[in-house]
Amino acid sequence: MAEKNWYVVHTYSGHENKVKTNLEKRIETTGMEDRIFRILVPTEEKTERKKGKEKVVNKKIFPGYVLVEMIMSDDSWYVVRNTPGVTGFVSSGTKPLPLQPEEASRILKGMGMGDKRIASEFNEGDRVKVIDGPFEEFIGIVQEVHPQQGKAKVLVSMFGRETPLELEFSQMEKS
Question: Which of 137, 141, 136 lies closest to 162, judged by CA?
Fold first, then answer.
């Protein structure tokens, strides 16, 4: 079986989110869920200052491009290539080129998403101690684990109230 890779799809500039939506609908209607997996519009959070006020906005890292995780075949190529707004794959002539695994990993990490294969040593209900950050030394209970992001939601007792914190795995240890 062919392996899944990340491919870069060129779109009309400003149509990245529309292409993502259209492609998700096409995958569903053509039954390609087993060949085309994730579609991402790479963005990063930036802080902008307007009229003295700071505002966090999501900026596209690669305007005019969308990342598609898929198993390349004639059928999957056809579905993606013929989605409205798609102008083509980034390729070496005629054959679409997959991103190198380290490139894809770097882009996903930049978006706050890791590789899905990250194993978590933490589980819901675990008692943990915060070992880094402003809540260092606090003890809490893991409520949710997000291995893709390398983060967990932890409830700590602060001022007599349960307070949820979002912590990276590196900021806590089992207690």
Answer: 141
Around Cβ 70, how many Cβ atoms within 10 Å?
25
CA-derived radius of gyration, the chain:
20
Q: Rounded distance, CA 44 to CA 153, Å?
A: 21
> 74: which residues sit within 8 A by CB, 6+ positions away?
none
Domain count within the chain: 2
CA distance 82 to 148: 30
Task: State residue 30 phi and psi, 5-degree precision.
Answer: -95, -5
Are 8 and 94 contained in the same domain? yes
pLDDT tens by residue, 37-92: 999 998 877 777 777 788 888 888 889 999 999 999 999 999 999 999 999 999 88
Average the pLDDT over 130-151 and give the result: 88
Q: Looking at this protein, which amino acid is placed at residue 164?
A: P
Q: What is the pTM of this model?
A: 0.61
